[in-house]
Amino acid sequence: MGSLSNQDQAECREKAEYANVNWDELGFSLTKTDYMYVMTFNQDEGKFSQGTITRFGNIELCPSSGILNYGQGLFEGLKAYRKEDEGILLFRPEENALRMKMGADRMCMPSPTVEQFVDAVKKTVLANKRWVPPNGRGSLYIRPLLMGTGQNLGVKPASEYTFLVYASPVGSYNKGELNLMVEDKVHRATPGGTGGIKAVTNYSPVYKPLTQAKAKGFSDVLFLDALTGSNIEEGSACNIFILKGNVISTPAADGTILPGITRKSIMELASGFGYQVEERAIPIEEVFDAEEIFCTGTAMVVKSVASITYRGKRTEYKVGADTLAEELHATLTGIQTGVKEDKLGWTMAIH
Ligand SMILES: *Cc1c(COP(=O)(O)O)cnc(C)c1O
């Protein structure tokens, strides 16, 4: 390429079928891709403008923007997978669109329609197609954001909003098992709060207990309900399931549990397998005699819990081959990557 200008060389690289990435080294961290999607909410028209694909890069914000000052913002997370035949599949993107709408309502923000959301996700993935890992070697993680970007000194909803979608290739986050520590002082969510939506303010308040648990060798914390401190809720970024006999239980998503799309999918798959699926309050005592415990989320999909430690008492669970978690993981990732038949119509082919 010696005689080509820098710009021509860059264009040549971008035409390559795959970006120059060591796919097998990918973890869950940002690898910058070429493009992002941006759409703004126009106050006068009362709707979102025609969005556009722009170069991925830093954005400019007024120091008094709603997102910076008062945390008026939401995020979403979903993945695009490459099939064996190179086709690209999204997994249940309308569910993320609906969840963003629900969250926007709670946070007093306008939200893109389901069509606008899905269209933005598609355009972002297609513009960054060369960053979608080869089949079986990871996925393109897509991060939609909705934020108050208008100036906003007074305590009130922002006057302008931005919907932005960016993406990053990520590896399979499923490796290894989880060792959870039950957190009985800090609560993730409170009734009437925002724990049931993907508010940008949900994670930083749990960094402290999470960091402390990690320093002790745990992978995550397991939160208890704020009202009674006696029922399990979820991890810092994942839902939890317990298996006993033919019954799979998960805490009911009634405001303090994030209604995970993986959670919902796992419940549907498990009942298809013949399990009785229950959404209910789960007292911490029930984890002591569970046969198997696993967590779910877009990043990890399904991951076995090897142990749970509560007030110094450690309980261990079955992990590895022939666990239900393994079977559910194989089934779900099979559907997501187009290897298994998608009987429930969860995937969306994009081109
Ligand atoms: C996003 C999230 C989950 C998982 O939701 P998925 O839709 O399955 O990715 C679980 N818990 C919390 C707190 C979350 O923010």
Question: How would you describe what is shown here?
Answer:
With 351 residues, this protein is of the alpha+beta class. It has 2 domains: 6-171, 2-Layer Sandwich (D-amino Acid Aminotransferase, Chain A, domain 1), CATH 3.30.470.10; 178-336, Alpha-Beta Barrel (D-amino Acid Aminotransferase, Chain A, domain 2), CATH 3.20.10. 23% of the residues lie in helices and 27% in strands. The protein is built from 8 helices and 17 strands. Strands 1, 2, 3, 4, 5, 6, 7, 8 and 17 form a 9-stranded antiparallel beta sheet that branches. Strand 14 (292-297) and strand 15 form a beta hairpin. Pyridoxal-5'-phosphate is lined by residues 77, 198, 202, 234, 237-239, 258, 260-263, 296-298.
Q: What is the radius of gyration? A: 21 Å
SS strand fraction: 25-35%
| CATH architecture identity of the largest domain | 2-Layer Sandwich
Number of domains: 2
Distance between the termini: 30 Å
Low-confidence stretches: none
List each distinct ligand once.
Answer: pyridoxal-5'-phosphate
CATH fold group of the largest domain? D-amino Acid Aminotransferase, Chain A, domain 1
Number of discrete helical segments: 8
**Secondary structural class:** alpha+beta
Extended strand count: 17
What is the global morphology?
globular
CATH hierarchy class name of the largest domain: Alpha Beta
- Give the helix proportion (percent range): 10-25%
Provide the CATH superfamily of the largest domain: Aminotransferase class 4, branched-chain amino acid transferase, N-terminal domain
